[in-house]
Every structure is written in structure tokens, then in C-alpha cells.
């Protein structure tokens, strides 16, 4: 998939010592050496593969960044401009390009141009990654509203993806609706195998997506990634009050940090979520720090 | 034997006349279809924001003109291999176009997909106007030169036959 939009020199350098599966992130900054993150370790990218010295590294130019974005859009910038406006671009297989540059504004954001940085995040599908917490989400045939909490890059989307797969794989009689605002969970076109019981709306904001899903697909479970906007909470509460269960993720280091976000403090206080799963990179990406009940007592793993 | 040779001369001259006139007909048909292709492209982009590869592949199956089919196949090759588009590559196996026309059509394809929807639609509309002008010109030339070259071919053939007879 990386081959589709990375120049040959960079792709060959990347894959000379690594497989795509081992790469977590590639960061390109105009005028700076290209860096690669593998299993939380940072490396520079040289023509012979990854290295530790910036002196041997390949440097990214502005032209290179433009070329990558243009190719990643399949030569159709107009088709991804709504994503670009939000600072990202998701390509086949769920690879997400976070983009920085000059924002063109004319009463509203029109686009991003003059790209200065690209962060390419390579998604993974790790089979059975969610098994340690699966019984906490599905408890005696009853699904708990669950919130997965982790800092960026700690594997919450991977966990979420496997959780969806496990529901399908075990033939539970649940219809799962995925509100995939960034196309990362499903992987978009040529995406991930998430089983036979999933429906997804991609690239629509979570509020509209969830409301559409509830009305049109009558789901048993709604799955969504990276809650944060004010509208998300309205849709979340609406879904939970419609008898639909919700499994969602949010960025935070731990529950204490999450409680400092006013909207979440209210959700925690009102006990909307029955389970909180905290992830970290402590022992590698996807480390399960703990699973907590609605009253924040520990069910599994370490202390708060 | 002499009659056969003279008959062949008439056929050959007529064939050349038809060939030259067919060139004008093909140009007219090419620009007519190109104009409609651009219109359909505009609508697809405006309505569904579909990616260029998908739109061009779909429209190419609906187009009957062999020159435009060839042009779109050449363009799709660039889209699929993600290489820089060139004039020679784009017009590979197409010989009915003049240099100025090639340059304008090349710029049309080169500019596709590089801007947002609003600007993309505006650009395509500008090019539709240009293609319309080319079509009218090709239509005028076709009406003027097609019968002329066809008749000339036949007449020259007959003239040669009369001289040699």
C-alpha cells in the first residue's frame, strides 16, 4: 500500500530492512531527514534502510511532499479536499497521512497547501489483540458500553478493529455499525477484514454518522474512534438512550486525565460507560494498563 | 490487363481522397466526443467526487470514437503508473490532431485533479468552451473539405485513366 504513493527510492529504502508490517510511522518534514518509527523506536531513513545517524539520512523536500500528497489522492485532490481541510488524508488500507502546511482561509478553511510535514501512520490488524479484554466488553451475552482510553499511537484503533472482528468471528448475533470519520477503522477501499456483521459510514462526522446509522441500519453496537468534538457527545448519549451499545476510543493518558475534560467528566459521573480500558506503550504498543468498572474500580490490570 | 490497371488507379485515387476526407470527419467526431467527455467528467466530479481513474475508466467504455478511446487509454496509463504526463505519451498512436490542439488537450489533462471541486469545475468549463471552438472549426472544415477531397480523389483517378487510356 505504501508503494502506491511513496517514491521508489524511499519505498525501496524502507523495505530493504523492514516489512511494511513492522513500520508504525514515517515522518517527512521539508528540508529535514526522514524518520521512521518502528515499535516506539525512532530511526532515520537512509538509502540502505533505517539508521541511527541523520548524516546518512534521506532528506525530504517540499516537492517530495507535494508529490506524495498528489499520488496519495490518486491524482484527484478534489476528492479528498474535505479531508485535507481537516489536516489528514486516508488512503487505501487505512493508511493515514497527517498533513501540515499553509491553510488557505477565505471565511472558512478552503484547503491546505505548501505542505511542510507529513506523518504517515501505518495501521495494523493484529488478530486476537482484543482477547484479553473481550470478556469485559461482552459480559454474559450483554455488551457493556466501553471507552478505550490511550495516548496517541498506543494501539487503540488496532484494539477496536480486532474487537469488531471478534464479534463477527464468534458469530454473536449483533449488527455492528462503524462511524468511521477518518476511514481508519475499516481501512476504506481494500480495507480490513472485519467480519460479516459490520456496516460502516466513512468520512462523515461522528454525530451525523451515528444518527444516520441508528435510523437506517438498526445497529446493536456502534463503534467509533477518537471522541472529542462537542457534537460527538450528543450523538453518543442519543445512541445510548436508543438502546444501542457504544464502544468508543478517546485520547488521554489515563482516567484521571480524562476526568479533566469537562464533557467526559460528566459522562463518567453519569456512568454512561460500563467499562474503561486504558492502554499505554509501557511494554510496547497496545499494553493494557487496566480495565475499570463504571465506578472506576479495577477489574483487570494495574491501578489507576 | 490494361483495364484492370486503370480500374486500380481509379480505386487507389478514390481511396486516397476518402482517406483524407475521413481525417476531417474523425477530427469532427473526436472533438464532439471530447466535449461530451469533459461535460460528463464535470458532472461526475461535481456530483460524486469520484476519483479520476474510476471516472475516466467508466467514461472510456461509453465512448465510441477510437481516437478518444486511445487518448483516454494513454491517460489512464499515467494515472495507474503514477508517472509524469508527457505530450508524446498522451498522444501516442493519435495522428489527427494539430500541435496547438495537442498542447491544449495536454494542459487539460495535466491540470486535472490538482485543485478543489469548485476550481476543477471552473477549469473544465473553460476547456469545454475551447473544445467547442475546436469542434466548430473541425465541423466547418469537415463540411468544406470532406466532399472536396472525396470528389478530387475520384476525379484525379478518372483524369489519370483518361490520360493513359
Written account of the structure:
- The complex is a heterodimer of chains A (304) and B (165).
- By secondary structure, chain A is an alpha/beta fold.
- Chain A is built from 9 helices and 17 strands.
- In chain A, strands 12-11-13-14-10-15-16-17 form an 8-stranded mixed sheet, sandwiched between helices.
- Chain A is globular, with a radius of gyration of 20 Å.
- The mean pLDDT of chain A is 89.
- Chain B is mostly helical and 165 residues long.
- Chain B contains 6 helices and no strands.
- The two termini of chain B are 12 Å apart.
- The interface between A and B is medium-sized, with 14 and 15 residues.
- Subunit organisation of the chains: heterodimer
Beta-strand content bin of chain A = 25-35%
Helix percent of chain A reads 25-40%
Summarize model confidence as the mean pLDDT of chain A. Answer: 89
Kindly report the spatial arrangement of strands forming the biggest sheet of chain A: 12-11-13-14-10-15-16-17
Return Rg of chain B in Å: 20 Å
* Continuous helix count of chain A: 9
SSE arrangement of chain A, N to C? HEEEEHHEEEHEEEHEEHEHEHHEEE
Please tally the β strands of chain A and state the result. 17
- How would you sum up the global shape of chain A? globular
* Estimated radius of gyration of chain A: 20 Å
- Strands of chain B, count: 0
Q: Span between N and C termini of chain A?
A: 39 Å
Amino acid at each position: 500500500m505504501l508503494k502506491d504513493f511513496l517514491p521508489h527510492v524511499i519505498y525501496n529504502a524502507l523495505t530493504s530492512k523492514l516489512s511494511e508490517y513492522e513500520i508504525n510511522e514515517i515522518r517527512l518534514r521539508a528540508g529535514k531527514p526522514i524518520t521512521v518509527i518502528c515499535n516506539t523506536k525512532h530511526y532515520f531513513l537512509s538509502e540502505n534502510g533505517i539508521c541511527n545517524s541523520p548524516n546518512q539520512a534521506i532528506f525530504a523536500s517540499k516537492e517530495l511532499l507535494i508529490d506524495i500528497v498528489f499520488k496519495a489522492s490518486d491524482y484527484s485532490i478534489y476528492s479528498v479536499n474535505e479531508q485535507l481541510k481537516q489536516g489528514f488524508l486516508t488512503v487505501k488500507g487505512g493508511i493515514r497521512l497527517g498533513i501540515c502546511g499553509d491553510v488557505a482561509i477565505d471565511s472558512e478553511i478552503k484547503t491546505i497547501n505548501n505542505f511542510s510535514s507529513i506523518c504517515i501512520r501505518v495501521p495494523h490488524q493484529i488478530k486476537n489483540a482484543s482477547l484479553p479484554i473481550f470478556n469485559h466488553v461482552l459480559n454474559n451475552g450483554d455488551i457493556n458500553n466501553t471507552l478505550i482510553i490511550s495516548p496517541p499511537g498506543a494501539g487503540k484503533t488496532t484494539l477496536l478493529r480486532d474487537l469488531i472482528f471478534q464479534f463477527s468471528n464468534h458469530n454473536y448475533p449483533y449488527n455492528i455499525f462503524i462511524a468511521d470519520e477518518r476511514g481508519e477503522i475499516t481501512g476504506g477501499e481494500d480495507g480490513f477484514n472485519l467480519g460479516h456483521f459490520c456496516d460502516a459510514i466513512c468520512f462523515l462526522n461522528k454525530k451525523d454518522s451515528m444518527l444516520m446509522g441508528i435510523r437506517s441500519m438498526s445497529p446493536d453496537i456502534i463503534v467509533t474512534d477518537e471522541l472529542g468534538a462537542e457534537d460527538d457527545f450528543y450523538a453518543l448519549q442519543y445512541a445510548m438512550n436508543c438502546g444501542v451499545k457504544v464502544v468508543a476510543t478517546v485520547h488521554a493518558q489515563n482516567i484521571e486525565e480524562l476526568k479533566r475534560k469537562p464533557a467526559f467528566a460528566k459522562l463518567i459521573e453519569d456512568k454512561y460507560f460500563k467499562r474503561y480500558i486504558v492502554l499505554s506503550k509501557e511494554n510496547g504498543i497496545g499494553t493494557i494498563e487496566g480495565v475499570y468498572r463504571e465506578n472506576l474500580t479495577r477489574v483487570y490490570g494495574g491501578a489507576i | 490487363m490494361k483495364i484492370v490497371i486503370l480500374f486500380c488507379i481509379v480505386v487507389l485515387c478514390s481511396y486516397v481522397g476518402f482517406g483524407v476526407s475521413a481525417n476531417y470527419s474523425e477530427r469532427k467526431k473526436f472533438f464532439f466526443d471530447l466535449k461530451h467527455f469533459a461535460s460528463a467528467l464535470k458532472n461526475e466530479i461535481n456530483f460524486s467526487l469520484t476519483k479520476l481513474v474510476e471516472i475516466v475508466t467508466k467514461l472510456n467504455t461509453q465512448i465510441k470514437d477510437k481516437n478518444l478511446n486511445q487518448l483516454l487509454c494513454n491517460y489512464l496509463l499515467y494515472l495507474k503508473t503514477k508517472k509524469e504526463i508527457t505530450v508524446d505519451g498522451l498522444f501516442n498512436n493519435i495522428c489527427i490532431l494539430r500541435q496547438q490542439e495537442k498542447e491544449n488537450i495536454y494542459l487539460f489533462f495535466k491540470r486535472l485533479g490538482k485543485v478543489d471541486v469548485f476550481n476543477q469545475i471552473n477549469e473544465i468549463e473553460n476547456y469545454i468552451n475551447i473544445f467547442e471552438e475546436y469542434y466548430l472549426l473541425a465541423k466547418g472544415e469537415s463540411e468544406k473539405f470532406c466532399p472536396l477531397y472525396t470528389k478530387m480523389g475520384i476525379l484525379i483517378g478518372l483524369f489519370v485513366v483518361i490520360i493513359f487510356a
